[in-house]
Amino acid sequence: LIQDISYRNERLLRCSQCKIARYCDTRCQKEAWQEHKRECKCLKSIEPNFPPDSVRLVGRIVFKLLGQSAACPSEKLYSFSDLQSNIEELSEEMKEGLKHLAQTLQLYLRVEIQDAFQLLPAIDIFQIFAKVSVKTDS
Question: Cα–Cα distance between 62 and 80 in angstroms, integer?
Fold first, then answer.
């Protein structure tokens, strides 16, 4: 399995600018550019200190929420606001971890969003992290 994944990664095309995003072919890369270009700018601005995948994911969600472009068919079924954060069920340790990720996100997005207050009140970064985080029972 690890060999299959490694082989697959070798065959994927990388974004020529940030060298992080990977695509199956040039068609996929072109189709993804509208969504990737802001992320690409952020990635280039902080290299070589790339953020964890969860920060990149939330960054893409923030850009999507800010853009509020026409919804694709899957977005007509459910919207991001339909997800529950269940913050009250998170441990203090988990909340601290999410706060750290939120701070990392602000550093990551600063080239595109200079003032985090631009996001409020419609976009609560902490809530977004809580929504995309997987809750595990100990």
Answer: 11
